[in-house]
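User: Could you check the structure of this?
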Amino acid sequence: MISLDELQQDALSEIFNIGVGRAAGALSQILGDDIALSSPSVRLMPISEVQSLLAGRESTHYSAVSQQFSGPFQAEAVLIFPESNALLIVTHMLGNHLAPDELAEYEQEVMCEVGNVILNACVSILSDLFHVEFTGGLPSHQYHASDLFNIQIPGNRDHILVLHVQMSIQNQQIEGQLLYLLSVESLQLLMEYLDRYLQEQGLQ
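Assistant: Sure, the predicted C-alpha cells are below.
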C-alpha cells in the first residue's frame, strides 16, 4: 500500500498551506471581504475510506467543483462543500437579499468561480516549487448525494489525497474537502517530485 511518511506529509501540508493562502487572498478581493482559509490537514486515503468518511457526515448532499489537471502527472481535483455551506458561500458572494431559489440558481456559477480560485492556487504552488507546468481544464459543478464516488474515475485511481480546509467569512465557519484523485503512477511521480524538492531544501 502506498503511503506518505511523516516528512512527506508535513511537507505537503506546508506546500498546500502556501497555495491556500494565495487562494484566500484572491477570494478576499473577489468578495470584498476578509476570507480566511485554515492550514489544510493532508492525508492519503484509499477511495473506500473517503467514501465512508463523507457518507458518515451529518450532511450527505454536496456541492462539488471538479477540474482536470495535466502535466508531468495527471490529477482530477475536486472541491467539496456540504450543500448548506455552499449556499452560505453563494450568499456572501451575491448578498443576502436573494431568495433561496435565486441563490440555488446562481450556485453553479459561483461555486465554479470559488473552486477555480482554490484549485488553481493549490496546483500552481506545486508548479512553482517542483519547477513543472500543469494545464487545467475548465471547472465543472455537480451536486452529489451520498453516492459521491459513483463519479467515473478513469485509470487505476485507488488513492485520494485529501485536504481538509475551513473557510471563515464574517466569523462563519465553512468546512470543505479538497480531493486530488491520482492514479498509482501519478501518485508515485508526485512523491518523486516531492522527494526531489525535499532534497533541494536539504531536508532529506
